[in-house]
Amino acid sequence: MVLVVVMGVSGSGKTTVGSRLAAKLGWKFYDADDYHSPENKKKMAEGIPLTDEDRIPWLCALHDILRREDSSGQDAVLACSALKKMYRRILVSGASAIESNQPEQPGENTALKILFVHLHGPIDIIAGRLEKRRGHFMPPELLQSQFDTLEPPSAPENFITVSVEKSLPKIVLEIESAILQGETFLEHHKTTSGYLYSDGNQLHPVTDTIRPSNKAKKLGNVSSTKPS
What pLDDT digit, counting tens, does each position of 187-206 carry? Predict the structure, then answer.
């Protein structure tokens, strides 16, 4: 069972990539924008950035959806901005992450195993996409505020970073490959941290006694090159 959250700023292609990935794999797809309250949508349409207080109930509701799919053994893809580390912790651990503002400790039952896919790209390219978009409540003027808010995933989060400058089929294929590689590895190895890194050839668990060497390349950076 796999849970994937496709994350990034508005205009990065979360819904397009997430829905295409889910359709190709035959998984359930959820768009986090569908679960914003009318008040949140109104604020964004008026160019007012959402506060943490605006987002927390929304994120908790999304966690509940992922928890339900996890409990039923259903693979699922969620498209969600998830800009801050705290937001991603809420998706993983629910309301308990708000109280402690810390990641769940290994062995605790409440944490979900989620692969975060960060769609990353330069602001000028993403701004160009937003200018062409119709029927969405996020105006282009809010894009800079999203970049300012963005806290890119880092260890020990479980993530990969994919360039939005690649074609849609290449992006989807890259995510599929990461999912398959992770599933294959975890069938034969156990890790308490849930974090994997790549040495360029295979994935390894990061544990208290095994850490990636300086030469090893973290999984989150394996997709940083632009295709020809």
Answer: 444 443 444 433 333 344 43
